[in-house]
Amino acid sequence: MPLSFLNPGLLFGAAAAAVPLLLHLLQRRRVREIAFSDLRFLEEVKARRSRALGVRRWLLLLLRMLAILLVVAAAAGPRLGGRDGAAPAPAALLVVLDTSASMRTEQDRGTRFDAALAAAADAVATLPAGAVVQVVLAGPRPRAVFNGWTGAGAGAAAALRAVTPTDGAGDAAAALAEAAAWVAEAPQRPVSLLLISDLQACAWDDAALADAARALAAAGGARLSLLAVGEPRVAGGVALVRTPLRALRAGEAVQVEADVRVGHPGQVWRLELDGRLVAEAASAASPGETDRLVFAFAAPAAGLHRGLVATAADRFPVDDARPFLLEVRDRLEVLIVHGADAGAAGRGGWRYWANALAPGGAAGGADELHHVRDRGVADVADGDLAAADAVLLVDPGPLGRRLQAAVVERLERDGGVALFAGDPADAGELGRTLLPALGLAAPTAYRVHGTAGAQRAVVTAPQHPLFDGLPADALATLTRAQWRRYHALPDSGCEVLLATSGGDPLLALASRARGRLLVAPFSTLDDATDLARNPMFPPLARRLAAFLAGGGRFAADEAGAAPAVALPDAAGAGAEGGGDALAGPALLYRARPGAPAEVLPARFGWRGGRGFVAGEPASRQGFYTFVAGGDTLGEAVLTMPAAEGEAALLTAAEAAARLAAAGLPGAGILAAAPDGRIAAAAAGRDLAPWLLGLAVLVLLAETRLSRRAA
Q: Hey, what's the torsion of the CAs at 670, 674, 680, 684, to 10 degrees?
């Protein structure tokens, strides 16, 4: 920490330390020699005594000079740390207060946020008369506490104490950029900017900091000070929960994975559904390491279930329980869209897919989970795609502008689409229209193999949800299927799940917007492949439909986002027309299953031709349920960002160096007292009493030594 002086001019008084030296030199006596009898033995004693007296005289001289220097330094008002002594008191103070989830970490005396809030309130309350203040909260979305610059004092400090931390992420650069906007509007100058944070390393982005530095410079600049609160602590917690990415049915085996940070050896985590314990797992990793746990259980009854992966509470309780939603379906609506029908198998063999999904027909069969509807391209009505859980386009040919737009819109709304395009006559049209709209390149060639040269299948991603859980013999059975005719797909950034033995993709997953697009460049007709005759075809078809349907019809996001869910078309139309379906929507928040619900405001909106209901940006993780009247409109879950549980913190010096590299040099470093007071820290630690005390001790030592010398 820097050393400064309140009255640096008094340091010229250090020249007084030369007075004892001058006196010493002036008082040196010349020795007069007088002849005497032989005193050799006395000369030896005299020499030893003279050397000892000489050392003592020089030591006394140094002690006297040191005492003078200490008194002069004390009079100059020395202080350790704090702001530059030449800097005037701030006329405007802008506090950037970290409200991210990591600030909830418990310390020996309260949480990090408690210390930060006390320091901020102290800084605001002790500003001089006439100063103004503004506070920017550095959470998921930086925001100002006051509507404008306000007068400093006890009132502003009291309003500040009502601030609470969030469960969301911190973003130092975004907060500084928001602060720059307020610096530009400051009614008086100079402006002091005080950043109070635990300086979590993951919240600092150098490129974004450089942008914030330019914004602050354009706003007129501000003196920046840093106050770090908290120390790194290793705590156990849940970083991430992975639920199955396919639709589930009651009774089937389910595996939920969780990435956990280990706090102590043998730490145990539990998985709860609707407040009931269903599975437990223990970690064998060492403290501070990340481990992946697997919870295996049977899927519960159909419905939407609120889940938690939790462990015993520790110093950072926010990540000790991570919420998730698990949906179990009792029915999947599958829409098959095909081109002009031809032959018993249908164009592209679409009837093979229909029979594999619902043996015995759509009215009910051996598999009651899937309800299949088929439509020719010309017969697809508005809303058909939106109402389906999974859409299969089987050699559809030209879709037309309206249907093509509906396919793209479905992918933008988290929907799943599978495109089976194996007819060579459609390659040109698809390459000019649908494939570019989906972000894919046109096929490069059409492969035709004779019976002897037929290509076998290779499962290239056996861990993908489409194949995950299938035994090795099932995968081996699938690889016995043969392909004789198919398009050669170019590399469009897709993940290849199934390929030919020659390396051509047979099933590729393309992530487009938020939806799932599976591309298969073949038809299922007998002259193209014998896949429909393979025993693994029905399980593959059902898994494909379940994957396209996704893991649940709910919204998941991080704390700080605005929870929102899309509405069924009927509900959206009723709301637009002023019906009762969405009269007075509300949002119910629960931190965990079974907890009392807190009612939050909600609103209805219309976006992209479809209705939705949304709440305000929410700062807490947990479960959000949209209701209207007695109906549940949808569910959403918000979770704490996994990075907020990381223990790595920057030191104040490291943060100052990062700011300097970004273009904000000279950031001062403050230190808060345990009770959060930083007014004294801003002025630095007063060293005058210590220097005066040391001067007294030096003089006492000089007095004692001079007596011994006499």
A: -40
**Residue among 390, 448, 452 nearest 422 (CA):** 448
* Residue 438: predicted pLDDT: 86
Q: pLDDT digit string (tens) for 53-98?
A: 556 677 777 877 787 777 877 777 776 765 444 444 568 999 999 9
Name which of 91, 207, 319, 198 is nearest 649 in CA terms.
198
Beta bridge pairs of residue 455: 483
pLDDT at 693: 82
| Phi, psi (rounded to 5 degrees) for 334 | -115, 125
Beta strands in 77-131 (DSSP E): 78-80, 92-98, 106-107, 110-111
Measuring CA to CA, how many Å separate 417 from each of 432, 462, 515, 573, 703? 19, 21, 8, 24, 95
**Contact criterion met (CB below 8 Å) for 211 and 173:** yes
CA distances (Å), 651 to each of 113, 178, 179, 655, 656, in order?
17, 23, 22, 6, 9
Residue 222's SS3 state is coil
Calculate the average pLDDT of the chain.
84
> What is the Cα–Cα distance from 417 to 403, expressed in whole angstroms?
13
What is the model's pTM? Answer: 0.75
Residue type, 161: R
Indicate the pLDDT class of residue 116, thresholds 50, 70 and 90.
Answer: very high
**Distance in angstroms (rounded) separating the CA atoms of residues 678 and 570:** 59
Third-level CATH fold of 92-230+648-683? Rossmann fold (3.40.50)
Exposure string over 277-289, b if 16+ CB within 10 A, otherwise e: ebbebebebeeee
- The SS3 of residue 441 is coil
Least trusted range by pLDDT, from 108-122, 565-579, 590-604: 565-579
**What is the domain partition of the chain in residue ranges?**
3-28+38-81+688-709, 92-230+648-683, 237-329, 332-549, 555-639
